[in-house]
Amino acid sequence: MLRIPCPWCGERDETEFRYRGDAGKSRPAADAGLAAFTAYVYERDNRCGWHLEWWLHVGGCRKLLKVVRHTLSHEIYAVGGPEDHLSLPQGLTR
Amino acid sequence: MNPLPKSHPTAAGARRVSSGRYSGWRLFLEGLTGQRGWSRAWAKAAPRERYRVVIVGGGGHGLATAFYLATEYGITDVAVLEQGPIGLGNVGRNTTIIRSNYFHPDNIRFYEYSLKLWEGLERKLNFNAMVSQRGTLNLFHTEAQRDLFTRRANMMRLLGVDAEPLSREAVKERVPLVDLDNGRYPVLGGFLQRRGGTVRHDAVAWGYARAASEAGADIVEHCEVTGIARDGSRVTGVETTRGPIAADTVCLAVAGHSSRLAAMAGLALPIESHVLQAFVSEGVKPVLDVVLTYGAGHFYVSQSDKGGLVFGGAIDGYNSYGQRGTLPMAEEVAAAAMTLLPGLARLKVLRQWGGVMDMSMDGSPIISATPLEGLIVNGGWCYGGFKAIPAGGLATAHLIARHAPHPLAAHLGLERFAAGRTIDERGAGPFPYAH
């Protein structure tokens, strides 16, 4: 069970949230071409380690959160709003 | 292709090991002589410096690929590299179900071919994999779901695959445990594929390993791949914990960890890794002689030959490489079980475990060449890798040997994503956690 510290509601169970995937992807420019859009829509780093991801607090404030979580240990390192720039810690990846 | 290097005499020695033919008669004879005549099922090969084909991953798909390369395409200069022992990866951690009840015609044809291979597999491998065609029964709970399932069954029947509707009464007769009028999602009926069923998963790994080894492939255990060697856009071999190995073709068959291996070659795949849990209850007398799936949630259950109920549900729902599940999904699976089969409420769960899945962006697998010459990927199996082992192995062997996709797996290429030809069986869009 993850306990996600929502910046607005405090620490809550993962069951209140809905996962929305990799938050490290940003939409390419409209003229960036097919390869760039294919990479944006489909390709993922899928790292075994620290991962920047979207979570929606559907059972709480309904705000979208950015979370830095470790995909092996499930440890949560940082939580912020959608505009925040969260950096991934170094190390602890294998 | 290359002659055996002199510095690796063990590899040459290992090749000569044969476990002989298994039969009832031999079992009888061994019984008379204290079971002393059995030898290793497969040779514990040491890796050579060079192979024509190196398959990374000694799971079901990797071993099956090696077996079909040798027996169908005449390529025996093959090594299967497995980081641990054979049979301890996903091939030994699934819920052992086989079926071909898909909707998309391309998927129906591919999985039906796999089911047909399962039907003749034990004779082909000379190994008892306990293939049990006890049927898979999908229940539906609403009128709309009946329409959806009828459409799927019609697609199957148009392609000559068996599917038959069962009324409420027929469901009850077949599975007396089902609570038809449960308070939440009453059962309106079901669809049965009689040729679906279960297979002893460990035996699949052992059987393919033994048969591939017998056919000439090297099964190299405890050999972890740590890097992929490239010369420009060409893959030339792998770095391993037992030294570098050169190869004309490197095939990744490491579903769950495909992204990590592909990243070693500088490639990003349309895959996320997610955890799927499974559970086994204590053993009881026979209560369920079919693979049963619940239509109002993600829950499926069958009874193993030892008597334990083997069941599971959906993925935990967020990227994970941790081979363990979390409690919210365990609770959801248990709730679905209690809704459908309340008679099981007193059963104790003996074991629970989690496995790492390659969840592809459209929910369908990938058997494909890559932008890198000499690199083949077999992965993205989502929940469904086990049932596809025979066809997946054969199609991958075809791709390696003929440099062109097998006709039944031509739709599974990586290029489908850029081309907009995704095979979205569930219609969930490019969200792996939703498939």
In short:
With 94 residues, chain A is mainly beta.
Description:
The complex is a heterodimer of chains A (94) and B (435). By secondary structure, chain A is mainly beta. Chain A has one domain (3-26, 33-80): Folate-binding superfamily (Folate-binding fold). Helices cover 9% and strands 34% of the residues of chain A. Chain A has one helix at residues 34-41; strands at 3-6, 10-13, 18-22, 50-56, 64-70, 76-80. The mean pLDDT of chain A is 94. Chain B starts with 8 loop residues before the first helix and ends in a 16-residue tail after the last helix. Chain B has eleven helices and 18 strands. Chain B has two domains: 44-93 and 201-271 and 362-434, FAD/NAD(P)-binding domain (3-Layer(bba) Sandwich); 133-197 and 272-359, D-Amino Acid Oxidase, subunit A, domain 2 (D-Amino Acid Oxidase, Chain A, domain 2), CATH 3.30.9. In chain B, helix 3 links the parallel strand 1 and strand 2 (78-81). Chain B is α/β, with parallel strands linked by helices and 435 residues long. Chain A binds chain B through residues 1-2, 13-15, 19, 21-22, 34-35, 38-39, 41-48, 51, 53, 69, 71-74, and chain B through 257, 259-260, 263, 268-273, 317-322, 326-328, 361, 417-418, 430-433.
